[in-house]
Amino acid sequence: MTTDTAKALQQLAEAFELIGAATAVLGAGNIPAGHAACYAKLIERIAQQTSRAQIRAAHALRRTGAHKLDQSSFLAIEEATEHPTLQNIEDAAGCTITGRTHFRNTRGMMRDWLDIPLGTASERLILADCLLGGVDEAGLPTPPWLPQLATEFNDPASDPRLVLAASKKLHSARKDLGEGEAGQAKKAQLERDSLTFMHAEPKSARKHISDLVAQVKAGKRSIKALLESIGIFKKGLRHGLIEYVVKALPSQAAYIEAFFASLDNPATVAGNREGLKDAEAQFTGEEASDWDDEQSMPDWAQDHAEGTEADADEAEADTEAPEATDADDATAAETANEPGTTEHQQEPGTESAPWEDLNPERRRLIGFMALLTSDRTASPPNKQPGLATPQVSIILNYERMLARASDFAVTSSGIQLSPGEARAALCQAGIYPVVLNGKSLPLDLGRTQRLYSKAQRRAIRAAYRGCSYPGCSMPAERCEIDHLDAWEKGGRTDIKNAALSCVIHHTARHCGLFHAVKIPQSRPMVLLSPELDSEQKLRINTYFMTPAEALEAEALADEATEQWRAGKLDAEIVDP
To answer: Which domain of life is it from (predicted)?
Structure first.
């Protein structure tokens, strides 16, 4: 038995040397593009194996009591790792003692001998408990705490990093699951749901699993306890900045998210880039700019700064507005009638201001400060930016509402509302209830015309919430509404002929990199190219859905895929 493990350790040492030698050549950068892609793919596979091996190594240290090894054993181990001959590795089998040892426990050994941070060492041992089993006080092995995820973890074809992330999240909710059979049943359901997300759409799995755990942790808290916890808390001065923590109810967060969406959209009053630059200057005393001085300013910006008004007028006279296309539905014409938009929209095709490149966090703070300091009684042009009224769309699932389910009301930003919050929100101005059928298709909104109407756009964005491409996290406010069947080819401006796509994936679809699929009485689905999806499964982007909605959507996609392959579904793969 010792010889077998010694050979395995020798192979591991050889693999370490081979990886180092290969990386020295491949990491030089002067390689063909295809080889670079192969290099990245293989390294990710190695990283997956390493993630799995780290947990198993921690489990082996604890199971064997390796922290009790004597001094001569550690000397032999050092020699074996420096010169990994089969004989040296055989001699490093080691001997544990019952007297005074170097390390108090496995965690201390991992920290002090392997130089692993204490938090990381503790996390690996916890994950070993969850996926490989632990050791009780008598030294006897115990079964894994998450048996379903343990099976997935031991599957060589699975990505262990995703399983590890899910296990860590579920373990954080162990005190909220309860005791007895009810707690075990709840834990088993969480495991099943987590596996469903991991298999269906790995890109969105982490988000949905986090939402599941958050629901478990919040499930037992009364509204009184929630109200006692909300507020804005000042943490103090840190690195020259004052830090605050905001804790809000989901219904309050819906308004905050809606206001942020307006700030992120340059076509709205709140997202007015020039106005927000002026607003930032009020607090900093300096004009907002991405350039430190004239030397760091690009040539085109210097030319613009030095140009005269006559030059600007001449350039404007020579510029013709481009014709509207489907891709412009959500930029030029689509925003013309939206509440909060200005009369002077940025012309399609013009370059965005450098201020657009600021990170969203800074842009949102400036817009929020502009909202706090603005004069609501002022009228344009003296009215400051940031006064757009947030619009919150609440999506009501009719079947769940009749069944008195707790998650029948969800905002367009994916925030789940309790029945009480939903009732209170519907009494406020600016709330737009959107009724959907069982397959998330908007009903009875808008009319047929060249461009989608205001009601149709609001319904589509509220229902789909973001880009249709699986795993894409671009929200609806930053997406374009695309005719699946092009208008110039006879396509109708109906809701069932609409898809929501970010700029990148809108272009990618028209370039044939993936296909939209129209399903009768359902939202459009996506068929990825064979090189990205060998299963060739119909997919739905569930990133903006609640966990319950995502599970239903994945089940719908699986059912549609099965019927489509059997020739029982009238699915239409849309041409680019």
So the answer is: Bacteria
